[in-house]
Amino acid sequence: MKVDGAGLSLQYPIAFQSTLLMATSHYTWTRGSLLPFKEAILAYNLATIRTVNVALRDPNLWNRGEYCCGGNLAAAETHLVGLVSLLNARLMEGRVRLEGSGVDGDEELTDRCVILFAAFMGCIYSRVKFYHENPAVIEVLDHCHERDVNGFPTRLAIFRSIPAFFILPATSSSLQQPVDVSRLLDSIRQMTRESDVIRSSEDDSTDTVDKVWRRGTATYLCIEAIKVHTSSYVYSGRNRAGSSPVRSTLSGMLAAKMLYLGTVLGMLDLGWKPLTLLVPHVLRVIVRDLRQGGGDKYRDLWLWKAFLACITLSAFPGCLEVEMEVFLHKSIQSWSQTAGIREWEDAKQVLGRIVWPDVVDQDGRFDDLWEHIITD
Prior knowledge:
The chain is an all-alpha fold. The protein has one domain. The chain is 69% helix and 1% strand. It has helices at residues 5-9, 13-31, 38-56, 59-70, 73-92, 105-128, 137-147, 151-161, 173-176, 182-201, 208-214, 217-231, 250-264, 273-290, 299-315, 322-339, 344-354, 363-375, and strands at 179-180, 247-248.
């Protein structure tokens, strides 16, 4: 039976308003002006505010709404799996660049958005994964919002930057330029320090992820990632005042951040189905980034990314093309010979100059992996 979606939307005022808004947005993207719809959009905004106000009067209704918006893991999983399927289809058609050069702005933008969104939803899943099959998950999500030391204002600040993901820059060349990721690295370092404090003070690390989130550093990490993305739309070549820039492709840095949170820090469950399916694409993004080089100035960052990729490959064997795996091993071997570093403890100090935890559950495994790569 054919379902008339437009006809159904006419029966529900809110659905009809949403349909009109989407149609207006589509027209705007194709024609380039919102001005003729100014009054309609204002009316829609007012109607939306009224709807939210009504919902706020009913705590049970609001809890369900909050759950759908921030904690519907099944819906998020379906959406992410669909995105991964689309990426795989692009790869099969030869539309995914595997070399270090020739990446266009659209592909860079796609990789940034998919990886950032997947990591964000993966962190939510990792935070409540011990509860997500239990009805108590709604209460857990409520407490997650209440206990974050940042409070609502800081977290709501993220949403002011989200529309930038859907506004293409004047030229795609601005997306292809390396960006300064130093503030993003600072946020990862702060998150690592918080994790070290918690892990070193407790025997039970079951809810370490939740406790790190509660301290607020994960929120700032997300905010900084969005800020770096939006600032890349206008490439000025200038450095942040009082700081030394650390330049990288943003897609490569976001990919490395995701793998670091998952394989080293344990803040992200890469065993969640959508993330497991996305891992091969994330690794290809990192390999593509590494093939661009980076020069002697960023050799430490280059090693950090390459070793994170190798750690991930050891956890997901066979998920990447053999040629790329060989490239990673040979490149680290070449780095080792040039730097004169063969021992894991020395290599770990280099990784620590970028970011590496003091308290690591799997340090022995990383030691074995490093030795395997160097002596291969």
